[in-house]
UniProtKB/TrEMBL annotation:
Molecular function via GO: carbohydrate:proton symporter activity
Native species: Parathielavia appendiculata
Membrane topology qualifier: Multi-pass membrane protein
Name of the featured protein: General substrate transporter
Cited NCBIfam families: SP (TIGR00879)
């Protein structure tokens, strides 16, 4: 018996982005736990490189997951590759819940990371391929919101479980990671396959029907459906002529898209927001906050994250991607400089660790300095939530061609996770060895990111995925001269409607019409 299929794109996005919630759950599965007595005692107060290894194990697994995601997605489809990834999440969560030492905990987080590597790269691809051009950003941003809800929910689960005695504290918290995966597995079979993937593997009839169901209530003769199908076919023919293999990512100007997709994800990590997202509990300790006050203060940042990403959800398709990337990086850089400068001028060294935590070796002076550090840490998250957090994933999902999108987004996510892993290993030792200077380093990197976005990232907002091809062509305009919108799809839809009205193809459906193109 065939299961009913959901074609409402918002509902499809909510179900698919449960994959993002897995990502969020695993990010904050450590945030509220690492400062608890139960965790510190059981794992013998891990610090420096060991805590870095525990924290970055998720990213290490995600590197591998991202590397296999593209070929896997091209082979079995976007939807089914997400389902495949869920298997490893269930195994990894079981390993974490039953862990007896740091090594087993790292192994479990690596397995969970493998899942996140696949879902973080292929959910945006899937959403980008089913969305209308003018709504693509607001649809893909649901992935970021799901990540942030996962972070918030898991953080407060961890905080609540901190009151449980013994190892049941963190085992219970980590066990709740089964829940979003269960709902994702239940929901996936009801989702449609990507019409662009169906076209790529030669299932044209199914592709047109799916496109029509998503875009036009099932009307295969709708001008939008015909116009988009013709664009898909034109691009596919060009890509088939370009050949296969890894060279297609670099030949005929494709290197520009590869560079754009991978670099925007690298800069998202190098901008340093994850220093706050992962380790605000450490910064709160530096600022003199302890106990419940420190935990709640750290947790509030995740609520702030959601609120401001939600605000951007309303405007993401009305604001250029370039504008948000450039000014977001500048704003984050300013916040890093303020936090680092205040820490450098108003702190003292505590070699034994603040509150006995070996990872926190400076204490910021109480009063205005401590308040400034917390305030600008929050402000950095606000800027990040409005700009780089959602836009980097959207942009990376948009720049690839149909034939390279799954593997290209896999490469982009691979770039993200390689730098995430490197920074995860770097951050805890950096808190010990260079203390406040870590924020100065990230401030400089943010300014470099702003310059990079300005020079090398053309505007993709409001254009169809096929139109974005032109932005990276040999004779493409300079990135800083491109503008949002200016889509040719509207004109193509009008042309199809005029063609139908005049009776040039009277009685001919979109398949036959496309075959004549």
């Amino acid at each position: 018996m065939k299961l009913p299929t959901i074609y409402n794109v918002q509902l499809v996005a909510i179900i698919a982005t449960l994959g993002g919630m897995l990502f969020g759950f695993d990010i904050s599965s450590m945030s509220a736990i690492v400062v608890t007595k139960q965790y510190i005692d059981f794992f013998h107060n891990p610090a420096g490189a060991l805590q870095g290894a525990i924290g970055s194990a998720l990213a290490a697994g995600s590197v591998v997951g991202s590397a296999v995601a593209g070929p896997l997605s091209d082979k079995i489809g976007r939807r089914d590759s997400i389902m495949f990834a869920c298997i490893f999440w269930l195994i990894g969560t079981a390993v974490q819940v039953s862990c007896q030492n740091a090594g087993q905990l790292i192994a479990g987080r690596v397995l969970n990371g493998f899942t996140v590597g696949i879902t973080s790269s292929q959910v945006p691809v899937y959403l980008a391929e089913i969305a209308k051009a003018e709504k693509r950003g607001s649809l893909v941003i649901i992935q970021q919101l799901a990540i942030e809800f996962g972070i918030l929910i898991m953080y407060f689960i961890g905080y609540g479980c901190a009151s449980i005695e013994g190892t049941a504290s963190f085992r219970t918290a980590w066990g709740t990671q089964f829940i979003p995966c269960f709902f994702l597995i239940i929901g996936l079979p009801f989702l449609p396959r990507s019409p662009r993937w169906l076209a790529k593997v030669g299932r044209d009839k199914e592709a047109i029907e799916t496109l029509a169901n998503i875009q036009a209530g099932g009307n295969t003769e709708d001008p939008r459906v015909i116009a988009e199908w013709e664009e898909i076919q034109t691009v596919m023919n060009a890509e088939n002529a370009a050949g296969r293999g890894w060279r297609k990512f670099f030949r005929n100007g494709m290197w520009k898209r590869t560079l754009a997709g991978m670099s925007v994800q690298a800069w998202q990590q190098l901008a340093g927001a994850n220093v706050i997202v992962y380790y605000l509990t450490y910064i709160a300790s530096m600022a003199g906050l302890t106990g419940d006050v420190a935990m709640v203060t750290s947790g509030i940042q995740y609520a702030v994250f959601i609120i401001f990403t939600g605000v951007m959800w309303l405007f993401i398709d009305k604001t250029g991607r370039r504008t948000l990337l450039v000014w977001g990086a500048i704003g984050m850089g300013f916040c890093h400089f303020v936090v680092g400068g205040v820490m450098g001028a108003h702190s003292r060294y505590v070699p034994e660790g603040v509150g006995g935590n070996a990872n926190v070796v400076i204490a910021v002076d109480q009063g205005a300095p401590a308040n400034t550090v917390i305030t600008f840490s929050y402000l950095l998250i606000v800027v990040y939530a409005l700009t780089l957090a959602p836009v980097c994933w959207i942009y990376a999902a948009e720049v690839w061609s149909l034939g390279t999108r799954a593997t290209g987004m896999s490469l982009a996510a691979l770039s993200n996770w390689v730098f995430n892993f490197a920074l995860g290993m770097f951050t805890p030792p950096a808190f010990i060895n260079i203390t406040w200077k870590i924020f100065i380093v990230f401030g400089v990197l943010c300014l470099a990111a702003a310059a990079w976005f300005f020079v090398l990232c053309p505007e993709t907002c409001g254009k169809t995925l096929e139109e974005i091809e032109l932005l990276f062509a040999k004779d493409a305009p300079y990135a800083w001269t491109t503008r949002k919108g200016e889509s040719r799809l509207a004109a193509e839809i009008e042309a199809v409607a005029a063609r139908q009205k005049k009776g040039e193809h009277e009685g001919v459906g979109p398949v036959s019409e496309v075959e004549k193109v």
